[in-house]
Amino acid sequence: MASIRDHLTAMGVPRFRYSQLVTAIRRGETDTFESVHELPADLRRSLTERFGPRLLPIVAVSCQSAEQVEKVVFESDPGTRFETVLSRYRAGWSSICVSSQAGCGLGCTFCATGAAGLARNLTPDEIYAQVVHPRWRQHDNALPDSVAFMGMGEALANPHVFDALTLLSDRGFGDISPRRITVSTVGFAPNLRTLTKEHPQVTITLSVHSPFSDERARLIPLERRFPLGDNLAILDEHVAVARRKIYLAYLLIAGVNDSQDHLHRLAKIVTARSRPELFHVSVIRYNKAVGADPDFHAPSSPQVNRFVAGLRALGVHATRRRQFGSSIDAACGQLHARYVASTASGGVASTASGDPEVDQRPTASAEHRLLRVVPSDRQETRPTAPECGPRAENHR
Fold it and tell me: Is residue 29 within 8 Å of 137, Cβ to Cβ?
């Protein structure tokens, strides 16, 4: 977006032309420069010659649908692919789960994306494009009601996320209230502090998954660099100023972190916060994820309900998170699962459309991939990829 703006400025084009272009992107009625008829024909041709035919830097190459959920594989630079999930709720609103990275370098042992390794960070434009893409405009042509950075990648390990948040929330671009944007992190403490300072109204979810440090480090290797206590201290300061509710995600894994000791220790951590009433535990049933620890299994539904009830009995605000899309590998921890399954034996993965994936298997251990930042080297023009098949029905 900044490159387009600078290009128009250098050409001496009036500023309102850029506004017209942004409005066309937000409307989602077209995905090519040539179709933005508010712009003069010669300007449309100039933009096409400079940036390629498409308004957005991503194209949909594969999609899968289940009840209330649609998952799309997007491609940016040829071979750089990532997944985005849109959920439609029967109450009449929608939420989009965006990726911040292609793959992930943190190596969490419960996650298919972490097993794939990190390809690169996504740019602000690539993140923004996932939300405004015409793919989602099925009925009322509106943007999704809320955005969650819970897709592929550790959002706070990508410095471009801060510019993406500005694009999504600023008037004239996304116009989405920061309170309708959630950033989920496993605990990237330095950038968590930055997030609380620069975007204090954004909703924050911190993944806990175990109240015991050694065990949490086996689940989330980043614990060794930025312990849970450090992240909670930052959030204590944040709630004192912003008075915004914090969500603590707890992935419940049968026989691993579901004991009474876990329950009581987790409750003690929450009730010890400076404003415990502003910390809410969101309990998530483990989803089988290809590439994750094979010894991990999902607890039964009654077990999850008992864990939530136990937290409540100890004075903790807790609920069970509703989940959709496990049948199409679109639930928590499952994104990029088909890619991992295909490459585990040394093959080349394929999307649902049959297009080959670039082999992006990790070449280093999770420890060596921590904090890795891979610069983006986007091309100015790119080939047009095929669109997905029929769009999912709205199961509101």
Answer: yes
Let me know: does 211 contact 263? Beta carbons within 8 Å.
Answer: no
Q: Which of 97, 332, 357, 388 is catalytic?
A: 332
Q: Give pLDDT tens digits for 271-316.
A: 999 999 999 999 999 988 777 889 999 999 999 999 999 999 999 9
Euclidean distance between the first and final Cα of the chain, in Å? 33
Is 104 a residue of the active site? no
φ, ψ dihedrals at 288, nearest 5°: -60, 125
Whether 83 is a known active-site residue: answer: yes
Who's near 6: CB < 8 A, 6+ residues apart?
none
pLDDT value at residue 325: 45
Q: Which of 98, 61, 60, 68 is CA-nearest to residue 326?
A: 68
pLDDT, position 342: 43
Residue 383 pLDDT level (bands cut at 50, 70, 90)? very low
Catalytic residue among 63, 70, 75, 83: 83
How far apart, in whole angstroms, are the C-alpha atoms of residue 340 and residue 291? 6
381 pLDDT band (50/70/90 cuts)?
very low
CA distance 315 to 211: 17
Q: Which amino acid is at 175?
A: D
Q: Interhelix angle for 160-169 vs 189-198, to 10°?
A: 30
CA distances from 186 to 174, 194, 206, 250 (A): 26, 15, 6, 11
